[in-house]
Structure to design on (113 residues):
């Protein structure tokens, strides 16, 4: 993948990685919007949620499980947190490599902006 996240997954660009395995990488967001702001990406370069296919169902599940695991790891699981996927322009997506935002460490407002 030629996105910045593809290059982080490939180890070509440094990131503050909190969890990784064969399928996923989780790392701190460079421009955090909350005291805890971690991004969880598949190594597979899927551009947006729209490109997720039936064959990616297990991978999608692993992404969610990783979000919950990392939330525990960084100590926000019990207080609570938010998981967000921005999709395309109206969703606010800026990096076109699928990612989950794990946000916590402060109360989250609703509706989101
Ligand atoms: P999006 O707007 O696509 O949902 O989220 C992209 C996120 O990636 C933003 O929160 C932005 O701060 C973060 N980001 C962009 N470039 C980098 C980078 O090079 N390293 C890290 N760690 N985060 C990045």
């Amino acid at each position: 993948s030629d996105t910045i996240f593809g290059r982080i997954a490939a180890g070509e660009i440094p990131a503050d990685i909190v969890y990784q395995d064969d399928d996923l990488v989780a790392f701190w967001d460079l421009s955090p919007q909350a005291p805890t702001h971690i991004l969880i990406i598949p190594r597979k370069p899927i551009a947006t949620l729209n490109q997720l296919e039936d064959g990616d169902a297990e991978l999608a599940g692993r992404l969610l499980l990783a979000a919950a695991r990392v939330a525990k790891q960084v100590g926000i699981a019990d207080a609570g947190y938010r998981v967000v996927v921005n999709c395309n322009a109206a969703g606010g997506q800026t990096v076109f490599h699928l990612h989950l935002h794990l946000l916590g460490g402060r109360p989250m407002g609703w509706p989101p902006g």
